Known about the structure:
Blueprint: H1 11-19, H2 24-32, H3 38-45, H4 50-62, E1 66-71, E2 76-81, H5 83-86, H6 89-102, H7 105-108, H8 114-121, E3 135-141, E4 150-155, E5 162-164, E6 174-178, H9 180-187, H10 193-198, E7 202-206, H11 208-212, H12 214-217
Parallel strand pairs: 3-6
Antiparallel strand pairs: 1-2, 3-4, 4-5, 6-7
Amino acid sequence: MPSMPYGSICPISKASEILGPRWTIQILCEMWAGSSRFNDIRRGLGRISPTLLSRRLKEMEAAGLVERVEDRGAGTVDYFRTASAIELEPALDLLARWAQRNVEAEVAVADPDLSSMMWEVRRYVGVANLPHRRVVARFHFADVTSGHDCYWLVAQPGVQADICATDPGVDVDLFLETTVASFAATFLGRTTIAREVEEGRMFLSGDARLVRTIVGWFPKEEYSEIDGIARFDPPRRAGLRSG
Length: 243
């Protein structure tokens, strides 16, 4: 990795020289979550440019963290973590748990890239707890002033849910209006749906069954239920109106 050495023989410093360049750990985490294609990795990261992602992947390959696999017959390229990178999983797991307990919630949910967050959300929808049919939910983010302010969740039995940034043209079963921070905090387990509704930061309407059972299917990140999580507690503001 091209970086200025710390000048220390401390093993942690040496590891930091390899893992420290911006986006390196995030790329590994996106691969950990299942992405292997360039465009999927980029979509999961959100704010990384194609040029920088390409450079980081080459650097990580040179450092022995990533293996590039090209299928000339299919015309595809996949990127996989090496055994060396997989060995980092316990350390990254502990880092995530530490962050959930020690990083203030308002900092943890500040200014996320909404598109990449919603791309991640699709992995965690509790499809098995939804009615055994197609279910469509529309999420409207009242505080978004540019770009997409609506996303549609389309869930069907037995397959991973899909998230659309454009109207899929089918009937919507549930409407959810909220703010980006409120949604992110709920996804991370920093707050609850009941509390966000009570505090006026979330509004639900539509299919009564989906509203009653939302706790069972609403997407929750894998570290959302660890002990000692730092809670989301912003100042109370005026409630939302359905959009």
